[in-house]
Amino acid sequence: MKLLNHPRIEQIRGFIFGNGVRDGILLKLMLYVLLITIGFVYLQPLLFMFVNSIKSPDDLLNPMVQWVPTGFYTGNYERAYKVLDYPNTLLTSIMMSVVPSLLQTAVASIIGYGLARYRFRGKTLIFALILSTFLLPQQNTIIPQMLNYRDLGLLGNPLALILPALFGQGYRSAIFILIFYQSFASLPKALEEAARLDGASDIRIFLSIAVPTAIPAFIVSFIFSVVWYWNETFATVIFLGGGTTTLPMQLSRFTQAYENLYPAGVVNIFDRLNEAVKMSGTFLNILPLLVMYFVLQRWFVESVEMTGITGE
């Protein structure tokens, strides 16, 4: 018993299993293994896509080459770049996703603030109707929307995406209104009351007090909105038609566009369509979203640290 209570034994036990001050090496090792495993599950498709996109035709035909190509082959990206008409489609995709997302985030914040901070007749009914627009499948409302846009002369016009976002009816606007509602509902009333005593108007209170405390909600809403607008091809094709082409739309007809640019009977075996070229096109499509996420992630963490008020 004395040996088990020896200070050296207690030190080793604390190092392995932890004590009241710090965690043990065993718990840390289990956490790291768990995090690495979860991270690999999420990153494995991206790694697989990137590794295959830089494989040469010889590496694709060689069964011995799996995760480590013999060289960094850029020919797949060069052909995918041409097929996607990358500069033009990228600019169009940014315009068709970032502009509506900015408007949708701003409008959703105003609606969420009004529902969270004001009392008025029919508030519950309005809130329920807003949420119902998120619960209803898009296929049930796409035809009435298309007919309304046709009567208004908006079909084939970017305003078909911009105007709904401006009036709080963009893609999945209800979920963003709910995010802002929850964020503004936790704002202490004492801050508003103090601002009103100082003579601040409702607009001043919203801009100076409510908006700074909801920066994480703004960033999260903007990121998800851009991603959903970026990946939305069903409604975009219906509303904008063939006159406007985004990266996801061009990627959906990648095979046809590739065969038109590189006819099968004319090109050699190195220029024929293969999985590596398709992977390159897919990676070029998601690359702007990855860059946007990694850039805004730092601002998101900092905004959470700066926002210390969560409620009274």
Describe what you observe in this structure.
The protein is mainly α and 312 residues long. It has 2 domains: 7-78, no CATH class; 79-306, MetI-like (MetI-like fold, Orthogonal Bundle), CATH 1.10.3720.10. The protein has helices at residues 7-17, 25-53, 57-61, 75-83, 86-117, 123-135, 138-152, 159-166, 173-185, 189-197, 202-213, 215-231, 234-240, 247-252, 254-261, 275-306. The longest helix has 32 residues, at 86-117. It is flat, with a radius of gyration of 27 Å.
Order of helices and strands: HHHHHHHHHHHHHHHH
Number of H/I helices: 16
- Percentage of residues in DSSP E strands: under 5%
Question: How many E-type strands?
Answer: 0
**CATH architecture level-2 label of the largest domain:** Orthogonal Bundle
Radius of gyration: 27 Å
Look at the structure and name the CATH superfamily of the largest domain: MetI-like
The tally of structural domains comes to 2
**Uncertain parts:** 307-312
CATH topology of the largest domain: MetI-like fold
The percent of residues in helical segments reads: over 70%
Morphology call: flat
